[in-house]
Every structure is written in C-alpha cells, then in structure tokens.
Amino acid sequence: MNTQALNINSSMNNCYIEIKVCMGTSGRASGGNDVLRAFKQYIQESGIEALIGRRCRYKKVGCRGFCSKDVLVDVIINGNKVTYQSVKPIMVERIVQEHIVNGTPVNEWLTKEDYESFHTKQHKIVLGPCGEIDPENIDDYLNMNGYKAARKAITQMSQDDVIKKVIMSGLRGRGGSGFLTGKKWEICKAQKETPKYIICNVGEVNRPLAEGNPHAIIEGLLIGGYAIGAQKGYIYIRERYHLSVERLRNAISQARDKGFIGKNIFDSDFNFDIEFSFGTEAFICGEETALMESIEGKRAMPRFRPPFPAQKGLWGKPTVINNAETLSNIPIIIGKGAKWFASIGTEESKGTKVFTLSGKVKNIGLVEIPMGMSLRDIVYGIGGGIAGNKALKAVQVGGPSGGLIPLSMIDMGLDYESLAKVGSIVGSGGMVVFDEDDCIVSVTKFFIEFLQRESCGKCTPCRIGTKRMLELLTKITDGRGEDSDLITLERLSSLMTSSSLCGLGRTAPNPFITSLSHFRDEYIAHIRDKKCPAGVCTALITFTIMEELCKGCTLCKKVCPAGAITGELKKPHKIDQNICIKCGACFKACKFKAIKKG
C-alpha cells in the first residue's frame, strides 16, 4: 500500500471520484480494457479506495467519435471533469498521483483545442449519451429518462397519436432515400393483414450507437412496434460486429428483466419481443427488400416494388424497416416533442444526421450535425481543415454511391434536397474528404469498382452497367481512353439511373456523373494528354531525373526495385523508362528534389 498517498489524502474523505474509460470498438482496440484495469488496480493498491469506498466509480462508456484520440478517459472529482487523450496503462500512476491525489491534472495529457472544437461544433442528439453513460448498465439509461417515452406512448397515446407525432417531427429515414418515417409507419398501420413486423438495420455507421446507447435503439423499436401494431421486432446486424451484438444482447436481456419487453408491457395489453437476424457481408443488404430476403434465409436480392414492404414485406406481411439512427430518434421525439425536434435543421430536412468524417481531414471521426450545416463548417470547423494544410479538392457525401462535391460548392448545406440537386445523396452518412493530391478519375473508378463487386446481379442494367463503367474507367486511367468513352459512360449512367431494379443500381453512376460535371478537365487530361494531373494513375506517370539537380548520391539507384536507374557516384543518373515500374521509390528517396514526377 502507498502510505504516502494515504497521508496526502486524509482530506479525500468527502471526495466523489468517477473514472470514465472509452470502451467502444476503437477504445477497446487501443487498450481500453488494460487502462481501466490499471486504474482499478492502482487506486486499490494506493489506498484511495479504502479512504473513499463506494464514492469511487468506474464506468465503461461508448465511442465519443474522435477515435484517433483513444483511449479517452474522463476523471471527474466532485463533479469537476477533465478528459485525457491517448491514455496508456503506463500513464495511470501519474494521473492518479498528480490529479486524483494531489488535485493537479497532468496538463500535457489533457485533450487539446482540436478535441474541443470537434465536439462543441456538433449538435449531438442520438450521439449525446454515447461516451457518457455505461451502455451495459440499464440504470444509467433509466437515469436519463430511458423508457419513459415508451411508457408514455404505450399507456397514454393511441397508435395514431404516436404516428402523428413522428410525422409532425419531420423525421426522415436516416439510412437511404429519406422517406418520411411517420408516413411509412402510417401506411403499415393501415394494412389489415397480420402479423406485422418492424426491423432495425444496424449498419456500419450505426455501430457506435449500438455500442454506446443500445437501449435507445430498443426503445425506438418498442415504440415503433406499438405504433404499427407489430408484436415482433428484428435487429438485423452483421455477426462480426461483435461488440454491438454483445451490448444489444445484454440490453435486450436487461429490458426483458425490467418488463419493457415481453407480455403486457407497462401493464397494458401490448406484447412485444425482439429477435436477432445475422446478415451477410453484402452491401446490397442495405436495400430493404434484399435485407428481408436475407432474414427469410434466401440470397439477398432486391424485390420488385410495388408492393412496398409496408404493404407486403417480411414473409409477405406488412413490415417497417428503419435503421438504428432513425429509431434512436424516436424516444427523443416522443419525450421532447415533435416541435422541438422540428426546430432543428431545415424546412424539409429536420433534426440531425450522423456522418463518418474521413479522408484527408485533420479530425477524423463520427460526427452529428444539424441538417443544413455547410460543408465548410464541417470540414474546416469540426474537421479542423485539410491534413498537411493541402487544398481541398472534393467531398464525397453519401457513401460509395454518393456524389463528389467540389470546392466551389463548399458553402452548400447538407440536407436531402440540396444534395439531390447536385447529384448526391445523404445515404447512411459516409463523408470522405479529398485534397489536391487525389485523382478524381481514380477515385471514381475506386467507387465504381466497389459497387460493381457488390452488385447482386439480379437486374441487367446494374449487373452489366457497373461492369462496363469499370472497364471504361480502367481504360481511361490506363492511358487508353478515347473521347467516345465519356459519351458511352454518360449513356450507361442514364440507363442505369432510369431502369435499375433497386437503389444500388440507380445511384451507382452518381460518382461518375458528379465527377464528370465538376472535374471534366481531369478526364480530358487523362484521355487526350495521357497525363494524370495529380500524378496518381501509374500508367500515366513518368519519373525523370533532372541532371542539373542530381548530385549523384546513388540513393535513388539503391532503392529502385527494378534496377531502372543507372549512373556513377557524384555524376547525374538516368532512369530507363522501358524498365521503370513507376513505383515512386526513387521520387520519395531523393533528398535533392532532382526527380520529376509527371
């Protein structure tokens, strides 16, 4: 036992200490379990625990979005909170001794301005509790009014009243086309056939919600089930999302023990239960009819519509499908009111939206913004600007089938209508930032390659269209492109958009359509000049040594894996273009900037 700590801390008898350790997927991967264990062990061994007993609480919390700073740790003493970043077990002793024992935070390990601006510029509604409450403890959720909205809906409101409130809120689906959630519920509730089902799709972007606040998803499912008259709910999730599955299972078990799931919920005649359905790794499963096929044990392929799922869905019965973010908003709308929710966002796009901010931005992470917030405020405010102080080139919004938005449109607001006007979508909330070093043609090819691979192949426009688009884009990046290829790509895009069976095929051309619209000059450079302006497309790159700058140090010669560089010590070297494999090793190794990339 550390007696010095005990002597110093005779005044700690009235202290209440809480230590929150980020234990989302990123936090655990960064060593969150070891950090939490180190705090418990050291506080016990130092004698602090003996002094304050139950007034020291350790809490596992979900992801806070700024994953590059994990492991994040809050140390709260008598309500005064400070947050440490990039915490390792070896740092724990000093934090305990200097901060908890002596009352002086370790300033060099505290979060910096970028962490504060990343969070303060957001509007967190569904992400708010993540990183604050213990997702494995239902009491934490109950202490923030958890399940009160469900109780209110089931015991004080009719089904129509619930649906009306959701319609009034303006909540639109957060996982796809943005159809009004309440309208979808209204259509399903109006169907005479029973039983009815409600499905929660937990996609990639939704994992932090499932890991950080799983009870909100369950409560949303419960309210939705009551509103449409369903007694069975499904959580559709990939089995490899281990932590999400673990915490959702635990939350369902706790909710069942409390009587929030099962028979006669809240002493009413409403019965509701939830079952897991584990999905495949296919991107197409984000399409709701393909998702239902997967639940039914069939190959995940879209169905023809109409009828729509709300009319004839799972096993031919009326079904509502919402993603986890959409359902997490429901308890908030019932609890705080439709007008409160509708006051956030724009006239047509209400509330907030969660996006994954990634790419060439300084602050990468999961963000929640009010609908209508400008790209500038997101990239340069929340994101902190472009990494390496490079110039912004474009932002891809809406996932692989979203559109590329150029720098000239950086002041546009992000909402359903504005994005649709520029050929993009909100989608599930992907956002990738590209800088001056990125080749837009190569980026477009990358997205089309992904979509071609993920096409289920059921309909010809998507199956053949994505394949032909990829072939033509590969031809262009390989330096074999022709002007006619752009005409063919535009025709393909039009055909796919108008005739594909599902949203994947209809939106797959978006990356090409938007990139050609805003970056046609790059396509022309690839096709006519046989040059890649960004120096990315290998087939169009040439490395040459400028004799007047070459010092003959031989470093480039040593790193060349193909033996394409010749020359004597202290004399200018040369690159044999017939042998050069264009790997760029010489370009990176040269200390005198004597190698030109063009």
Automatic annotation (TrEMBL):
Residues of the 4Fe-4S ferredoxin-type domain: 541-570, 571-598
CDD domains per UniProt: TRX_Fd_family
Keyword Iron-sulfur part of the UniProt annotation: yes
Stored Pfam families: Complex1_51K, Fer4_9, NADH_4Fe-4S
UniProtKB keywords: 4Fe-4S, Iron, Iron-sulfur, Metal-binding
Gene3D superfamilies xrefs: 3.10.20.600, 3.30.70.20, 6.10.250.1450, Glutaredoxin (3.40.30.10), NADH-ubiquinone oxidoreductase 51kDa subunit (3.40.50.11540), NADH-ubiquinone oxidoreductase 51kDa subunit, iron-sulphur binding domain (1.20.1440.230)
GO molecular function terms noted in the UniProt entry: 4 iron, 4 sulfur cluster binding; FMN binding; metal ion binding; NADH dehydrogenase (ubiquinone) activity
InterPro entries: 4Fe4S_Fe-S-bd, 4Fe4S_Fe_S_CS, NADH-UbQ_OxRdtase_51kDa_CS, Nuo51_FMN-bd, Nuo51_FMN-bd_sf, Nuop51_4Fe4S-bd, Nuop51_4Fe4S-bd_sf, Thioredoxin-like_sf
Keyword Membrane part of the UniProt annotation: no
Family, per entry: Belongs to the complex I 51 kDa subunit family.
This protein's name: NADH dehydrogenase
